From TrEMBL:
The keyword Metal-binding applies. Keywords: Iron, Metal-binding. GO terms for cellular component: cytoplasm. It comes from the Eukaryota. PANTHER family: CYTOCHROME P450 508A4-RELATED, CYTOCHROME P450, FAMILY 2, SUBFAMILY AC, POLYPEPTIDE 1. The keyword Iron applies. Pfam families: p450. GO terms for molecular function: heme binding; iron ion binding; oxidoreductase activity, acting on paired donors, with incorporation or reduction of molecular oxygen, reduced flavin or flavoprotein as one donor, and incorporation of one atom of oxygen. This is Cytochrome P450 2K1-like protein. GO terms for biological process: organic acid metabolic process; xenobiotic metabolic process. The lineage of its organism: Eukaryota, Metazoa, Chordata, Craniata, Vertebrata.
Length: 120
């Protein structure tokens, strides 16, 4: 009888854990939809990693799929990518107010030594 009770407790604990994981997964999937937030389109990020698994500098395939302006996530940090001369020109000349308020990435600060440019 004790074995049956222990088995029932174990099954109910496993079931509750599985239900909690499924609930968290559903909340994550519905909360990360970027179409309603007004951000440019982009790949759906993974928890903690973001889109780091998709980045390949030798094959810039994301701009072919999402266009010249798209959103990627570096871990939990969101970034808007401008791919191409026209997108950069429009952003810097016609929408300078919005793009002037962006964060300065700490690694860029290290590379540029505070001068705003990186060595070639």
């Amino acid at each position: 009888m004790a074995l049956v009770e222990m088995l029932l407790v174990h099954v109910s604990t496993t079931g509750a854990l599985l239900a909690a994981v499924l609930l968290l997964l559903m909340v994550y999937l519905f909360s990360t939809s970027s179409s309603s937030s007004g951000d440019p389109p982009g790949p759906k990020p993974l928890p903690l990693l973001g889109n780091l698994h998709l980045l390949d500098l030798r094959q810039p395939h994301l701009s072919k799929k999402y266009g010249s302006v798209f959103t990627v996530h570096f871990g939990s940090k969101k970034a808007v990518v401008l791919a191409g001369y026209k997108a950069v020109k429009q952003a810097l000349l016609k929408q300078a107010e919005e793009f002037g308020q962006r964060d300065i990435t700490p690694i860029f600060q290290d590379f540029s030594h505070g001068f705003g440019k990186t060595p070639a």
